[in-house]
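Exercise 7.
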Amino acid sequence: MKTLDEMRKQLIDKAEDDIAFRGRLLAEPRAVVEEEFGIEVPESVELRVHEDSRSAVHLVLPPEPKLDMQELQTASGGNCITSPPCW
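Solution. The predicted structure, written as tokens, is:
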């Protein structure tokens, strides 16, 4: 099974070489992804394809983390709640 990054790269590479594929990917991303990778995308997953231009650039952020920085440090052992020494 390919990773999400590998699938993105494959779609972008193909869209750069095939203008018809690019247009279809923009218009019907779910159908294209399902056909290209032989998978079923759950209805709960929304697929959006954006096209950069000379006047518009899209920045995609990862999902919000479920823990704030303090919680992440504590969970990873990077923060000592009790007085030293910390193990």
